[in-house]
Here is the input.
Amino acid sequence: MNEITCNLHIHSKYSDGTGSYTEILQAAALDNVDVIIVTDHNIHVDGVEGYYAVGRKKVLMLIGEEIHDQGRDPQKNHMLVFGANQELAPLAADSQELIDKINQLGGSAYIAHPDEFALPMFHEDDISWVNWEVTGFTGFEIWNGMSEFKTVSQNLWQVIKNAFFPELVAHHPLNQSLQRWDHFLKEGRHLNIVGGTDSHALHIKFGPFTKVIFPYRFHFSTINNHLLLPEPLTGEMEIDKKGVLNALKKGSLFVGYDLPASTKGFSFRIESDEGTAFMGETARIQRSAIVHIKLPHPSEVKLIHNGEIIFSSDKQDTISYPVNQPGAYRVESYIQFLGERRGWIFSNPIYLEKSKR
Here is the structure.
């Protein structure tokens, strides 16, 4: 498998971000990001996808969309759309109709910031997802950089501290989002995760001073998606776009917090008597199977089956663990950074089923 770095959930001047595509691409190249997916609010910009050269680095820019019903107050139920390749914002008022259309077009529908807190002092509402009757969505944005800023900035001092020292913000996905995901997995639903920076590069005024909250380049060094492709990137936009979108739809990726240490090189697979399965895939067994986990360096690691921790270690980089129960298996890893325990790696599931033979 070939690992590439993809940063997604990015806003430009076309909606409520402050940067041009050129500025966003330059930031991505400086942080060695391979693919960016711009997801402006309720607008799909055509004709701009492609490879862009920034110095010696080529970055593939794709266009998705973040869709929500602008007539709703507060404007909850935000959906990240990848690979639909057309404007779908007119369907925003009916989440199920929107999901069904995305699936019909062969795209991916990820619920954005499923759980979050309000930030009243800045008139920022809680815009979590509330329409949990819907079905057919691809998965969740399990970790959102700007939502976490709201979570950890509940008074003026915290807002100022986190605005000037953004490296202090990220801790881990919200526990309620992880628990919600595990609940669905335990029910037998196959749901993927992505991580989103929710980049805006917002300009905030503090008296006579203006501060850029989370510049694009900072965001691109934090919560990334590490996609696993069957073939290396070719440099041909249409071929590579297909590979990226297939990985997002299949769940062939892990979410990595790359600021404390690069998560590149993480691997997770299950080998059974009927073959090998990777993230987003299903392994079938007759008797038993072995989970193999490889971390970039020793750290805290957990193997989770249907929401229950079945193996944990405080400091280990290579794990082989026998399993035989059907269900969803996933991996979490944590690391110490700036004096606190931080989430580091969150894998997509591998599903285990009993062979019918």
